[in-house]
Amino acid sequence: MLLVCAGAVGAQTDDAPEVARAQAEVRNLRALVEAGAAPRAQLQKAEEAMADAQDAAILRRTLYGQDLTAEQTDEMMTAASRRFDRRRKALDEAKRLVEAGAASQLSLGGFLEEMDRARKEADLAESRASLVRELTEMAQAEEALANKLAEEPAEAPQIADRYDGDGIFTAGTLARVEMAFARQFGKPLPVSANGETAVHRALGFDHRGRVDVAVHPDLPEGVWLREFLTENRIPYFAFRQAVPGKATGAHIHIGPMSTRLVPGG
Q1: Which domain holds residue 178?
Q2: I want to staple 235 with a disulfide (CB 3.0 to 4.6 A). Which of 8, 99, 165, 190 is the partner?
Q3: Are 15 and 128 contained in the same domain?
């Protein structure tokens, strides 16, 4: 199974130096095992190390990367889970050695630290995946609105309230909104997407020059924000749900409606 996992992700992680070294070690050991010059257990251990190096490379590209699509979050979560399971297995084996009297209690320290790091890494992956899911729901809400505007304009208000203002939204305008919100609520404006993201690109939307704010339009922060935007003639779309009948994707999109990406543009 380790070799199957390695084959599934190897094409995306081969460029990582540690992965290349681990793969070379596996090839060498496989040849030695086939020649009867090395135990198969040593090869299995090397295969586990290779799989772990590949998962670490996946996490550097996803968990610690700049931008993610919804599909990449699944890969990230799976890699973090596998690394956590390996640390748990290693700790269990170390505990058995201690119980058998073959190792001291102090030997567990390193395994416990590795387990704790893997747990924190898995928690971080879950947190980032949650943010990407939230952003995906917001982007899907905008996609639904765009489709309604194109196909059934009269039904578009069911998805979002629209205010065109003066049609202008710039970085300077955003700075004014952020400062006003911070003064009003004593915390930063909860911006979930500032400009282009991988999620919007995947859906075929040009989100440059637009901002999504993770507040429900009908809760106090959302009501205040809509009033501020209206008073200052700043365009926005207030989404209460991504799809009629489902309470997902609620947010306030500041700026003009996102446009469709033009291939090659």
Answers
A1: 159-260
A2: 165
A3: yes
